[in-house]
Every structure is written in C-alpha cells, then in structure tokens.
Amino acid sequence: MSRLFSKILIANRGEIALRVIRACRELGIKTVALFSEADRDSLHARFADESICIGPPNSQQSYLNIPAGISAAEISDAEAIHPGYGFLAENPEFAEVCEASGITFIGPQSAHIKLMGNKIQARKLAVRAGVPIPGGLDGLDDPEEALHGAKKLGFPVIIKAAAGGGGRGIRVVHSEASFRTAFSMAQSEAGSSFGNPEVYVERFIESPRHVEIQILADHHGNIVHLGERECSIQRRYQKLIEESPSPALDEKLRRKMGEAAVALTREAGYVNAGTVEFLLDGDGNFFFMEMNTRIQVEHPVTEMVTGVDLVKEQIRISANMPLDIRQEDVVLRGHAIECRINAEDPEKFTPNPGTISFYYAPGGPGIRVDSAAFESYYIPPYYDSMVAKLIAHGRDREEALSRMQRALEEFVIEGVKTTLPLHLRILGKMKFRKGEYGTDFLDKMLS
Amino acid sequence: MEMKEIREILKLLEKHDITDFTLQRGDHRIRVRRGGAVFEREVAVPVKTAPSPGMVPPPSPVEAPAAQPETLAVGEKQFVVTSPIVGTFYRAPSPESPPYVDVGQTVSKGTVLCIVEAMKIMNEIESEVNGKISAILVENAQPVEYGEPLFIIDLA
After folding, report:
1. Which chain A residue lies closest to B56 (C-alpha atoms)?
2. Predicted pLDDT of residue B119
3. By residue range, what is the domain housing residue A305?
4. Which of these, A64, A167, A360, B74, could form a disulfide with A412 (CB 3.0-4.6 Å)?
5. Exposed/middle/buried for A295, CB within 10 Å: 0-12, 13-18, 19+?
6. Which residues contact A405 (CB under 8 A, 6 or more apart)?
7. CB-based contact A52:A69 (threshold 8 Å)
8. Is residue A335 part of a domain?
9. A155-167 residue pLDDT tens
C-alpha cells in the first residue's frame, strides 16, 4: 500500500494555493507556502503550516524562479511540490528538476508536459490515437508553400504557434491577400514569445464551442473521464464563464468525446489529472485542440457535478495510489456554473489593482467561492487579476443559473472595479439563458 | 526632521493603510500609530508563520509571541546584510574550516561573509560595504529565506 506525503510545498499563490492547502489539510498533509515580498500578508502564506519568502515581487525572480522553489522544498523537507496552474505548472524543466532532486512533482512527467507543450507533436499524437483534428498543415516555414496549403484548406484559416496554447500565439486570416504577411508575423511572434518560431495552419471552424474533457489517470493504467466543461464564454481566448454539463452535449456525444480523451491519454501514457480541449462545431463534430497538463482554473464545476475532489486525486495519484473510481461510477449530478471575477474594468478590461475596501462573499445553498481575497486585501499589480471564482450548483441548469444570478447580486467587492456587472449582463442574455452560444458570443455582445 | 517630511510620511502611511510605523535616524525617532493595533516594527523582518490551529489565524493573545514579527533595531550608521536567495546559511566553507567572519571583524566591499547553499550550489555572499561586523543574526546551518537579515555591519 502506498503512503501519502507528509509535507507538500505549493509553488503558487492566490486562490489555487489556498485550494491545494485545503486539500492537504483534509488529507492530513503538512503544507509549505512560497511567497514573494508582495504576498507577505496573503492568505496562502498565512494558512500554510510553514511559509517561505523566495524573492521580490517580480514573478521571474519569485514564483517562476526554479532554483528558489527547489531550494525552499529542500530546506523545508517537503516531499512533493504542487505547482497549481500558471507559473511553473506546465514548465517541463521545472518538473524535470523536481524529478532529478528526488521531489515528487504533483502532475505528469516532464516528458508529457513537453510533448503536449508542442502543439504539432500533440496533433500527431491525436492522429495516432484516432482522435479527430481540424484539417491543417504543419512543418511549414516557407510562406509560399503555406499559402498553397491554406488555399486548399479554404479561407478563413487560423495560424497557431507550435509552442503556444491557452489562446496565445493565434492569428485568424480571412483572405489570401493578407496570408503571407500574417504567416511571417506569426513566425516571428512565436519566436520571440515562445522561443520557437514553428507555426501550423488549421482550418478555421466558424463560431465553434470550446468543450473540454477532464481526465484522471493513475500509475496503474486506470483512466477515467469526468465529463465535460463548456468554456465558450471567452474574451480574447481567455475564459470567463464555464459550465458542466455543456448545453450542447447529449449522452451519446459525451461518451464519444470522453472516449476520445481517454484514448489520447492512453496513447501518450499520460499520468495525473489532465484536460483535453476540443472545438465542437454546429453539427456535433469535435476536433482536438490541445491537452492541458495541469489542474485547470475551472476545475470546480467538474467537482460540483461529479463529487470528485480533483486536487486530492492529483495528490493520491502522485503518491502512486490507484484511482478508486471507475468510469461507471462517474455520474454528472445537476449542473454547475463558474464565473471568474477579475479586478478589471468591466467594459475596457484594463486590470485594476488596489485595495479591497469592503468584501462580502455570497453563500447559501449551492454556492462555492474559491478566493484568496478579504477586506483590506491589497491586489498587487504583479500577478493576474482574478479575485474570485464564484461557482453555483443546482439540480438543473435553470436552478444553477438562478443561484448564480442571486449570488452575483450578493457579492460585494468595493475599492476596485470588477467584472461582476459584466457577468450579470451575460446572465441576462436570452441566448446565454437558452445555452445557445459559441466562442464568439462575448465579442458579439460587446461590439 | 522637517514638518514637510513628516507630512509626507503621514500621507504614505494613510495611503498604504499602515497602522504602526517607527523611523529612527541617529537620535531622532518618530513613531506613528493609527487605529488600535500595536506592534514594534522598525525594519521589515521576514515573519515565520507558526503552525496555526485553524484556517483563520486569529491574533490570539496566547500565541501572540510566536506570531509577532521579530524586531530588529538598526542605527543610522549600520547596514543590514540580507539573504539574496532561499537556502541554507553556512558561516564557513566547510565544517572543519574557521568561519569567514566573526563579530568585531573589519570587512570591506567584496569580503566573503558566508555561504547560502541552494540546490547543492554554494553561493558566496559578499559584503557590499566597508565596516565592522556588529552582529551575526543566523545560526550556522540554519535555513534562511529571501530577504532574511544575516549580518549587521557598523559602517566605517
């Protein structure tokens, strides 16, 4: 029988660091928090059993500083590191240094992070696993040759960076005339942003839905999928609202997409929690986009409908324990929605750091708030602007929506501008209420 | 200290909502308190959080000594050497060798003061000032965090 860890270091900040601390407490595992000088008074530094300052506010020198993170794990005798999401979560080098230092990285192996980090390699893997991908071309560096291929695919096409992902390094080209310039610019942008100029071209899917499948895979060959998350409410490829189940999926399509995600996971030999992202067109065809090798921001909606604690599962899997759920045990109960509340101007989306002068988080039936904010908390300008994740669960979509609506109305955050009013506007839209929306919904609503 | 300076300080304290502030320059010392909280904090010293029983650590009077920030009084002609990295503090290059520096020893810019080991790499920490070691604040082989004060040097 495997043994759980006695101490875990959390290489992250904010609500996700708190989320991991909560899982550890429930499992009886001691925690070590890392913090930068800007986060000395933050909740993750206060709630962990131990906390260590690892650098100045700038994340390059603190939360992204691999030697500092490893050194902190060594001086605190932590056996494992949970990277959360963002920062070092999908950095194969960090996972590799953990492996070399004898510290368990709570996530997949570095080789799998690297594999999924290269979107061209991931596409090839999908093909081997029999998972559909959008028509496309890769291995191109000559614009003329690429143009020739793009014409065959038919405009509009989408140019993506091989090392991109998460919505970064994407360019939509509507006509032949602008293709050459766009292709060269995409290459140089990819080179400067990701250190790899490789790009690929895909057929552009008109007004698709973004639907992703949560998987869990252990070291003993067991893989389950935990249904989908609908993440089509996005602004500039950044998700704002997520829900599970998706209004667009029926049981048959859910099973098909779930099986595709499991096949891809199995083909890769991937272990731990992961998310397989798909684009879904209006005719029920789905196409592999990418696999995220971390816990996702929107993981709570899956937790609410499945009753599975994904962070605890990640820890158990890393401790070599077998999954104790089988596919037939996974049942989606009711409906869950998450709104990401950011400290941003709700119209212009400019970040709004500052001190929260008054804070009241909603509660009551079916409401969950994952946040590291509190009254008098200063939101530092160095990190991302998310203040809270508000999650509503109900026995059906209708009830989840009404709970979300009243919870958004109850939520009070003063002192900084937030996206609370924007969420209320979205919830007021008939198309959203009916579940008839794609990734272009928000852009259309705001234009 | 001029009134103008004091006014500036008060404005800053209010802006950043600081409740207690002490500034010492030679013989001059100013302490400002706003609201009810009282604790001494003359130099920002890393706070080692003690294991707290609940999720919200209330400032319980029993636990107060452990949770309070350490106080470090530093004079105007003194310099605090802080750790530039997280790691383990060593006073000597090896267990057999004598320490790099002792209290009372004169040091100059570039004098090696100690080692902070991080990920099996020995990082020599050099003095940035000329002066005399007034205090060594960390025990040999102790873990240190980023920004933790290691030495106080009386400036030459």
Report:
1. A47
2. 82
3. 209-446
4. A360
5. buried
6. A424, A427
7. no
8. yes
9. 999 999 999 876 7
Residue of A nearest to B116 (CA): A71
DSSP E strands: which ranges in B11-94? 20-25, 28-33, 78-82, 87-90
Q: Is the pLDDT of residue B142 over 60?
A: yes
The pTM score is 0.84
Within this chain, do residues A198 and A301 fall inside the same structural domain, yes or no? no
Q: Per the structure block, which two tokens stand in for B111? A: 């004098």
Contact A216, A206 (CB under 8 A): no
Closest CA to A337 of A412, A247, A404: A404
Question: Is the domain of A370 the same as that of A418?
Answer: yes
Q: What is the pLDDT of residue B69?
A: 46
Exposed/middle/buried for B12, CB within 10 Å: 0-12, 13-18, 19+?
exposed
By three-state DSSP, how is residue A280 classified?
strand
Instruction: Say yes or no: A164 and A258 in one domain.
Output: no
Contact A172, A132 (CB under 8 A): no
What is the amino acid identity at position A256? Answer: K
Beta strand B112-118 pairing with B87-90? antiparallel
Q: Which of B90, B126, B118, B121 is nearest to A52 (CA)?
A: B118
**In total, how many domains does chain A have?**
3
Does A280 share its domain with A259?
yes
Task: Calculate how close chain B gets to A51, using CA atoms only, in Å.
Answer: 6
pLDDT given at position A79: 98
A216's enclosing H/E stretch is strand A209-217
Which long-range contacts does B132-137 make (Cβ < 8 Å, 24+ apart)?
B132/B104, B132/B105, B132/B106, B132/B107, B132/B156, B133/B101, B133/B102, B133/B103, B133/B104, B133/B105, B133/B107, B134/B78, B134/B103, B135/B103, B136/B91, B136/B101, B136/B102, B136/B103, B137/B72
State which fold the B78-155 domain adopts: OB fold (Dihydrolipoamide Acetyltransferase, E2P) (2.40.50)
Sign of CA dihedral A96, A386, A164, A205: positive
Task: Check if the beta carbon of residue A57 is closer than 8 Å to that of residue A380.
Answer: yes
Domain co-membership, A279 together with A162:
no
Query: Which residues in chain A have Cβ-Cβ distances shorter than 8 Å to B141?
Result: none
Q: Out of B17, B49, B146, whose CB is closest to A54?
A: B146
Restricting to A residues 327-356, those with a Cβ less than 8 Å away from any Cβ of B are 355
User: Can you tell me the mean pLDDT for B116-145?
Assistant: 93
Query: What does R_g of chain B's alpha carbons equal in angstroms?
Result: 18
List Cα–Cα distances, A105 to A8, A48, B17, B105, in angstroms.
Answer: 10, 19, 39, 44
- C-alpha distance from B40 to closest chain A C-alpha (Å): 17
Note if A128 is an active site residue: no
Q: What is the pLDDT of residue B17?
A: 67
Q: Which amino acid is at A432?
A: F
- pLDDT exceeds 50 at position A402: yes
